[in-house]
Amino acid sequence: MGHTTSQPSTTQSTTISTALGTMFGTALSLLLSLPLYALPLEQLKLAEGYKVSVVAKAKNARQIALGEPGTLFVGSRKEGKVYRLRDIDGDGIYEQQEILLKRLNMPSGIAYRDGDLYVAAVNQILRIADAGTLTQLPVSAELITDNLPDIKHHGWKYLKFGPDGDLYFNLGAPCNSCLSQDPRFASILKLNLQTTQQTTVAQGVRNSVGFAWHPSSNALWFTDNGRDHLGDDQPDDELNRLSESGQHFGYPYDIPDPTLYQGQPFTEFHPPVLKLGAHVAPLGLSFYTGDQFPDANQNSLFIAEHGSWNRSSKVGYRVLQVDTSTTPVTYKVFIEGWLQGESAWGRPVDIVTDRDGSLLISDDRAGVIYRVSYRKPG
């Protein structure tokens, strides 16, 4: 069973732009001139028939969420902003950018459902009603909960609705490696929007910044970033699959520590489905739900590797395609080339399948959204 924490019974319908006026400024709407960026897209390597193009500009773009057709929402971390992008003429390029919210505390996580946009900052989750149609800016946002730790270390969140209708989010460890008195740290949780009750779904997850459900089985798959400062090659970053609510996935016992964690057998914990290598920093992921790609189906899981920041020789900075139907699972590199030698001009963050079967990928270093499409050669 998952650990459950009761929250305050009063759900505050707070107009955040008024009550927390210093957090938001005047929203900005601007038309973007194309081409958006002179990025070296020719350096990106994909299989024959695949093409990458830049379709939007959004500084420090992190998690992305499809709105109604022609609308895309983007969270950010360092910028503290939430963007609404619009494809005005239906050509697949989001030429209009509006800033719905700003001056938030790392609003990386966003999720869209039934016309409303949910935003996860470090210590609160907000809702913007009718987010796709609002014309008066800045927007008003309702406070769903602020019963979250106000700690920035691994405090930025990923946010998605699960098949059960609850809102899932991560709560990373408040350190490189430690045990915290708050049992919610180092976990994936879900929030019931009617009761505001939080339930721990997965424990021992140091820092997951991406999860997705298999389209048929509804099994939850998620990435996890291993600890730092143990050298170049340990521990592995991971791809995990949850088979039972409340499972423990090892952190901080995954690496023996004779000072703090003596006698903690790894066999008590759920092992990863796939070890990805140390420091590759897997973040957002998406099961493929389209029919445009000839070599992908609903068992294909695309993972964005954000790339290493403190390894002596850089790794990651690519997108993987995982076949989840095999035992053990297998993978191949889907896109690489953002890393050139020891210099990276882009860092992929999140991935979604668009309605036409293409993939949209955010990049917080280049500050853009890419579209990956396929056309049969010849």
State the main characteristics.
five-stranded antiparallel sheet; 29 strands; globular; disordered N terminus; Neuraminidase; six-stranded mixed sheet; 1% helix; mainly beta; 378 residues
Please characterize this protein's 3D structure.
The protein is 1% helix and 37% strand. It has a single domain, classed as 6 Propeller (Neuraminidase). The strands form seven sheets. Strands 1, 12, 13, 14, 15 and 19 form a six-stranded mixed sheet that branches. Strands 2-7-6-5-4 form a five-stranded antiparallel sheet, with no helix packed on it. A hairpin with a 4-residue loop joins strand 28 (359-363) and strand 29 (368-374). Residues 1-35 have low confidence and may be disordered. The radius of gyration is 20 Å and the shape is globular. It contains one helix and 29 strands. By secondary structure, it is an all-beta fold.
Q: Rough shape? A: globular
Total number of beta strands: 29
CATH architecture: 6 Propeller
Query: Kindly, what is the distance between the CA atoms of the first and last residues, rounded to a whole number of angstroms?
Result: 54 Å
Average predicted confidence as pLDDT: 88
Helix count equals 1
Determine the strand fraction and express it as a percent band. 35-45%
Radius of gyration over alpha carbons?
20 Å
Structural class: mainly beta
Largest sheet composition:
6 strands, mixed
What is the CATH H-level superfamily?
Answer: TolB, C-terminal domain
Point out poorly predicted stretches. Answer: 1-35
